[in-house]
Amino acid sequence: NAGVTQTPKFQVLKTGQSMTLQCAQDMNHEYMSWYRQDPGMGLRLIHYSVGAGITDQGEVPNGYNVSRSTTEDFPLRLLSAAPSQTSVYFCASSRTGTSGPGSSYNEQFFGPGTRLTVL
Amino acid sequence: AQSVAQPEDQVNVAEGNPLTVKCTYSVSGNPYLFWYVQYPNRGLQFLLKYITGDNLVKGSYGFEAEFNKSQTSFHLKKPSALVSDSALYFCAVRNTGFQKLVFGTGTRLLVSP
């Protein structure tokens, strides 16, 4: 298994440009999420999905869109890049249970990250 | 709302000495607690988790963590540190029924030879 893969690894954008960060997993995980990591702030949840066709907002969703058309893929779109979106972005996935606690205690698997700079 | 505090930005320890990385949490209901490690230019790797049962949880690479409900803490420990343990460590919490995982700000562990 390749696990969680992310492309690209590095990206430089100009303010106002748009782009899509790709994330894919081959573990048949229902749950997928996007985080951004900034110095001194830990990881903050941007968007997440509990299955194909279902997405929801995290802590910092503004300026980002997601979709989940398949179980495997969960792309993150920056609509109009801003310098404040300069960050390292991580995609993660995990199994979910049928309901209740089983959906909460499974650890997440993380991709290697995308380092984005917006000038 | 869930929250996690890692009060130390950095922990320094000599190789061979025991190490502790602190974590306290706030959550309504029963907590599910996790520790992750991040090596330079890498994604996060799962170390261990507490769901229920014994308060002392053992994980990867010789790490363990102690859950203390009265102090709402989940400190990461290792009896004998290695230089290769130097990395960024994150504590995270989730509560029953919710998918959102809330991370602390991270603690950098530096193990000197």
Which architecture of chain B per CATH?
Sandwich
Strand content of chain B: over 45%
How many discrete structural domains of chain B? Answer: 1
Low-confidence parts of chain B:
none
Count of helical stretches of chain B: 0
Count all strands of chain A and give the number: 11
Per DSSP, what share of the residues of chain A sits in E-state strands of 2 or more residues?
over 45%
What percentage of residues of chain A falls in helices of 4 or more residues? under 10%
Number of helices of chain A: 0
Oligomerization state = heterodimer
Q: Main β-sheet of chain B: number of strands, strand sense, barrel status?
A: 6 strands, mixed
> How is the biggest beta sheet of chain A arranged?
7 strands, mixed
CATH topology of chain B: Immunoglobulin-like
State the total count of DSSP E strands of chain B: 12
How far the N terminus sits from the C terminus of chain B, by CA atoms, comes to 41 Å
Principal-axes geometry of chain B comes out as globular
Interface with most residues:
A-B, 28 and 26 residues
Helix-strand category of chain B: mainly beta
Explain how this protein is built:
The complex is a heterodimer of chains A (119) and B (113). With 119 residues, chain A is mainly β. Chain A is built from no helices and 11 strands. In chain A, the strands form 2 sheets. In chain A, strands 2, 4, 5, 6, 9, 10 and 11 form a 7-stranded mixed β-sheet that branches. A 4-stranded antiparallel β-sheet of chain A has the order 1-3-8-7, with no helix packed on it. In chain A, a hairpin with a 3-residue loop joins strand 4 and strand 5. About 5% of the residues of chain A have low confidence. Chain B has 113 residues and is mainly β. Chain B has a single domain, classed as Immunoglobulins (Immunoglobulin-like), CATH 2.60.40.10. In chain B, strands 2, 5, 6, 10, 11 and 12 form a 6-stranded mixed β-sheet that branches. Chains A and B meet through strand 4, strand 5 and strand 10 of A and strand 5, strand 6, strand 10 and strand 11 of B.
